[in-house]
Amino acid sequence: MTRLLDVENLTLQFKTDEGLITAIDDVSFSLDAGEVMGLVGESGSGKSVTAKSIMLLNPSNAVYGPDSKITLHLDDGPIDVMALAKGKTKDMRVIRGGAISMIFQEPMASFAPAISIGNQMVEQLQIHTDMNAKQATELSIEMLDRVGISDPSSRFKQYAFELSGGMRQRAMIAMALSTKPKLLIADAGY
Ligand SMILES: Nc1ncnc2c1ncn2[C@@H]1O[C@H](COP(=O)(O)OP(=O)(O)OP(=O)(O)O)[C@@H](O)[C@H]1O
Ligand SMILES: [Mg+2]
Question: Which residues line ligand 1 (CB under 6 A)?
Answer without folding.
Answer: 14, 16, 21, 23, 41, 43-49, 59, 61, 105, 189
